[in-house]
From TrEMBL:
It is a multi-pass membrane protein. Pfam families: Choline_transpo. The keyword Cytoplasm does not apply. It comes from the Eukaryota. GO terms for cellular component: plasma membrane. Choline transporter. Choline/H+ antiporter. It catalyses: choline(out) + n H(+)(in) = choline(in) + n H(+)(out). Belongs to the CTL (choline transporter-like) family. The chain crosses the membrane at residues 51-73, 255-275, 282-300, 338-359, 380-403, 478-503, 626-649, 661-683. GO terms for molecular function: antiporter activity. This is Choline transporter-like protein. It is found in: Cell membrane.
């Protein structure tokens, strides 16, 4: 029986049963809504929806602008760029007394090898800004003795003391107690604006200025091996900056080639979409088979590498024992790396094969939907470039949030905290004043010996400074709200555009002019409140998830199984809630774009419409997403392979053009991630188109019966394939 005859006969049977007095069969989830007989596309006569939320959204944006202005006036982004001494002053900043002192000097570098360095990112010793690092050994005691013979010794040593100290008659015990001068200085070199010991190897022994042993001001014997751990710890704190500088250097050398790679991915994505317009079935089946063959080749290659490394010494070392390495070749020499690759590829291969075996019919239906989506996009090519508008909106949101967060974090006056070598000190992290700290008894306590009053962060006692944390949370919440609103605007705009295509009786003659602009205007003019309402609900859940992540980091050191269990349960629940809300709001935006109702009504109608077609939706939605994902992976992977061969100088024709890089994976990963995001932007339009057409199809089945009075508005191909599946469900 033909699909339209089946549906028409079923409708006639229902009408005859109703006329005979029997109740018509109720749908599984909710009653279908009463339809307008002459409905032919998105409703044009609309009214504003969720007006209260719209007003709140506008007020919040104005307050957010005010927050950014206040943060800009109180904060200073330069505080993030310059190292800070113990008094909260910046080294090398123009307009300050330290303008000619760009380097940070540690009074006692030996104190930098304790947990406080990693916990507070501060070394528990006095830190001063200096113009240059010391280039010779000297102790305070030696300097006092030599000063009587040569005053130049004091002139050299005093540049590493506090600026206001000039009392050589002060007992050395009090000098060291008050941290007026360092007990000793060692030859150092500037390492990212910080003085660290300058080590060299002499006859197999690590030395500093050709001296492996020396004495400090208290005549205690020291050797260079004691300086290595603190120097290593301090180096670890700035290694990220060094890595960042090298990455920036690689970007500077290869940005033109990265741009060419991204343009190549853009061209490939466009060609892929144009081919989908005419050969959707062939192209998608080719994509599936290509991905299967590539996965099989990857599994074979991993097996070959495992057989080669099996007898190689040192290849059995675990990845966790290697720690973080910037050279990827280190990991490629480990068998565990290739085992992980092999297992991942094998699981992916088996999953694809099982899906093709058990869901082959649904794959054909999904391909039909993609073919219909290709036709819709082919008639409205401007929809492919609407993600550029979303990208610009997201760029503005991210930039504004980042600058506001930086200026909020750098607002106020310097706040000082007690930094102790022993983390069990009861006064650790408590507020203190450097001027009076030495007159307190804190450093005399057994658990707090060696404590220092050091600069911690910028704050204040005003209401603005007291609520900085809440302002940061507000900044984050509004940022999430704006991001989700931008994404909702894109979904609603595209959904309204594609709905106008579906409900056009004659395609493309009955498609309204400028459908994308008309849909965008309707979304902004009438439904800003509904979009903001849905975005707010999702943003609150995301903020709660971020807070839970923060609390989990704080509770890592707490040995409490119950609290960890509760935390994991909460994270799992809110993750599921976010996924559910994201899916429901996505369908609600489609209904808002078509019928112009408020968010809650649209979400309810979308929910019942989906539940009445739950089997069809559950399978087709996942299969379609999977096919689009394979297309994105194929584009990103293909461009990535070309980039890999280029940056590793394996293309003989242009081998001489390859820039000399520190890490070839920097431009490679940039090209691959950028290609995937570009492909995702194009295919996301397809995903929205498929979802819109599918909801319109389900609505069309309930609204019309295929008769001459109520003909289906779906295309003949879509009717033939999807209508046949409706006989089963």
């Amino acid at each position: 029986m033909a699909p339209h005859r089946y549906i028409a006969s079923r409708s006639s049977a229902v009408q005859s049963e109703t006329a005979a007095g029997a109740a018509p069969p109720a749908p599984l989830y909710g009653e279908p809504q009463k339809f307008d007989k002459y409905f032919r596309g998105p409703v044009r006569k609309r009214s504003c929806t969720d007006v209260l939320c719209c007003l709140i959204f506008i007020i919040v944006i104005l307050l957010y602008v005010a927050l950014g202005i206040v943060a800009w006036l109180h904060g200073d982004s330069k505080k993030v760029l310059y190292p800070t001494d113990s008094y909260g002053q910046f080294c090398g900043q123009k307009g300050t007394s330290n303008v000619k002192k760009p380097i940070l000097f540690y009074f006692n570098i030996l104190k930098c090898t304790n947990p406080a360095v990693l916990i507070n990112l501060q070394c528990p010793t006095t830190q001063m800004c200096v113009s240059k690092c010391p280039d010779k050994f000297a102790t305070y005691t030696e300097m006092q003795l030599q000063h009587k013979l040569n005053k130049s010794n004091w002139e050299y040593y005093r540049q590493f003391c506090k600026p206001d100290f000039n009392n050589l008659d002060k007992p050395i015990s009090q000098v060291l107690r008050d941290e007026d001068c360092p007990s000793m200085i060692v030859p150092s070199r500037p390492f990212f604006q910080r003085c660290l010991p300058d080590f060299i190897t002499l006859n197999g022994t690590v030395t500093t200025d050709n001296r492996a042993r020396f004495k400090d001001a208290l005549e205690m014997a020291r050797n260079d091996t004691e300086l290595q751990p603190p120097a290593k710890d301090m180096t670890g704190l700035v290694d990220t900056k060094q890595l960042g500088m090298k990455i920036v250097e690689d970007y500077a050398k290869s940005w033109t080639w990265i741009l060419m790679g991204l343009l190549l991915s853009l061209a490939v994505s466009m060609v892929f979409i144009l081919l989908l317009r005419f050969t959707a079935g062939l192209l998608l089946w080719t994509t599936i088979i290509t991905v299967i063959l590539l996965l099989a080749y990857g599994m074979w290659y991993c097996s070959m590498k495992l057989s080669q490394l099996r007898h190689k010494p040192g290849s059995d070392v675990a990845i966790v024992e290697v720690s973080l390495q910037t050279d990827l070749q280190v990991y490629l020499q480990l068998t565990q790396t290739w085992i992980i690759f092999l297992v991942s590829l094998g699981v992916t291969e088996v999953s694809i094969l099982l899906m093709l075996i058990f869901l082959r019919r649904r794959v054909r239906v999904a391909i039909a939907l993609l073919r219909e989506a290709s036709k819709a996009i082919g008639h409205m090519m401007s929809t492919l470039f609407f993600p550029v508008v979303t990208f610009l909106l997201l760029t503005v949101c991210i930039s504004y949030w980042l600058m506001t967060a930086i200026h909020l974090a750098s607002s106020g006056n310097p706040i000082y905290k007690v930094v102790s070598p022993d983390v069990s000190c009861p006064y650790a992290n408590s507020t203190c004043k450097p001027e009076t700290f030495n007159r307190t008894n804190i450093s005399k306590l057994a658990l707090c010996q060696g404590s220092q009053c050091l600069f911690a962060f910028y704050g204040g006692e005003t209401s603005y400074h007291r609520y900085l944390f809440l302002l940061q949370l507000s900044n984050l919440l509004v940022f999430l709200w704006l991001v989700n609103f931008s994404l909702a605007l894109e979904q609603c705009t595209l959904a309204g555009t594609f709905a106008s295509y579906y409900w056009a009786k004659r395609k493309p003659q009955d498609i309204p002019p400028c459908p994308l602009f008309s849909s965008f205007s309707r979304a902004i003019r009438y439904h800003t409140g509904s979009l903001a309402f849905g975005a707010l609900i999702l943003s609150v859940v995301q903020l709660v998830r971020i807070i839970l992540e923060y609390l989990e980091q704080k509770l890592k050191g707490v040995d409490n199984s119950l609290s960890r269990f509760i935390m994991h349960c909460l994270k799992c629940c809110f993750w599921c809630l976010e996924k559910l809300l994201r899916y429901m709001s996505h369908n609600a935006y489609i209904m808002v774009a078509i019928y112009g109702k408020n968010f809650c009504t649209s979400a309810r109608e979308a929910f019942f419409l989906i539940m009445r077609n739950v089997v069809r939706v559950a399978v087709l939605d996942r299969v379609t997403d999977f096919l689009l994902f394979l297309g994105k992976v194929l584009i990103a992977g293909g461009v990535g392979v070309v980039a890999f061969f280029f940056f590793t100088s394996k293309i003989p024709v242009i081998q001489e053009e390859v820039p000399n890089l520190n890490y070839y994976w920097v431009p490679l990963l940039t090209v691959v991630i950028g290609a995937y995001l570009i492909a995702h932007g194009f295919f996301n339009v397809y995903a929205i188109c498929v979802d819109t057409l599918f909801l319109c199809f389900c609505d069309d089945l309930e609204r019309n019966d295929g008769s001459s009075e109520k003909p289906f508005l779906m295309s003949p191909e879509l009717h033939r394939i999807l209508g046949k599946s409706s006989q089963v469900h």
